Amino acid sequence: MFERFTKDARAVVKGAVAHRESTETGTVEAEHLLLALLDRGEGRGAFALAELGLSGRAGSVTRALDEARRRAGLSQADTDALAGLGIDVAEIVSRVEEAHGVGAMSGKREDRGRWSGGGSFGRDAKDVLERSLRIAVARRDRHIGDEHILLALASRPGVAAEVLADHGVTYDTVTRVLDGGGEVEAG
């Protein structure tokens, strides 16, 4: 599949691996792909993020992703659903961190050497990359670009899509920007 990726899309994947290494997690996740997209200054995905006002807000996105990582990757929607069942995720995180240290639920690993190298891709990152292929095919694009990765991130449920939506970036707004649908307001 990677032979169909453009130079920009390959750079996003490589950047995601670098983010995985910097966060000391075992696998590349969708959030790493999002962070790598935000790092890019070129490509159609970077253009769409800039048009939607997200390019200067990487710190806000990073904080939101860090908070979700601290909750063991639970999205705010997941946290709200559990609260409806009487489960206080913030209390659970607090108790786990009290017993095991801050960030204990974040996926950081002490035995990092075991995970060194390229790292594997987690289920959600694989899903994003597979969706990017399906989106490219549906749009009749010959190659998979970074814009397809962005569309895939925005189209699937989870932390990355939730953080994007909280910043005014949705599948529909990205599509309008990419298709030249005029002015698009973002949050």
Describe the structure.
- The model is unreliable at 109-117 (pLDDT under 50).
- It is built from ten helices and two strands, in the order αβαααααβαααα.
- It has a single domain (2-178), classed as Double Clp-N motif.
- The relative contact order is 0.19.
- A two-stranded parallel sheet has the order 1-2.
- It has 187 residues and is mostly helical.
- It starts with 6 loop residues before the first helix and ends in a 9-residue tail after the last helix.
- Helix 1 (7-23) packs across helix 8.
- The protein has helices spanning 7-23, 30-39, 44-51, 58-70, 76-84, 89-100, 123-138, 146-155, 159-166, 171-178; strands at 27-28, 120-121.
Short note summarizing the structure:
Residues 2-187 form the Clp R domain. With 187 residues, this protein is mainly alpha-helical.
Q: What attributes characterize this protein structure?
A:
10 helices; two-stranded parallel ribbon; 187 residues; mainly alpha; 2 strands; Double Clp-N motif; 2% strand
Write the layout of secondary structure elements.
Blueprint: H1 7-23, E1 27-28, H2 30-39, H3 44-51, H4 58-70, H5 76-84, H6 89-100, E2 120-121, H7 123-138, H8 146-155, H9 159-166, H10 171-178
Parallel strand pairs: 1-2
CATH architecture: Orthogonal Bundle
How would you state the average pLDDT, rounded?
Answer: 82
Outline the low-pLDDT stretches. Answer: 109-117
Biggest beta-sheet profile? 2 strands, parallel
Give a count of the beta strands, DSSP E runs of length 2 or more.
2
Contiguous helical run count: 10
Distance between the termini: 34 Å
CATH uppermost class:
Mainly Alpha
Number of separate domains: 1
Physical arrangement of strands within the biggest beta sheet: 1-2
**CATH fold category name:** Double Clp-N motif
InterPro entries: Clp_N_dom_sf, Clp_R_N
Organism: Streptomyces cadmiisoli
Pfam family, one: Clp_N
Protein name: Peptidase
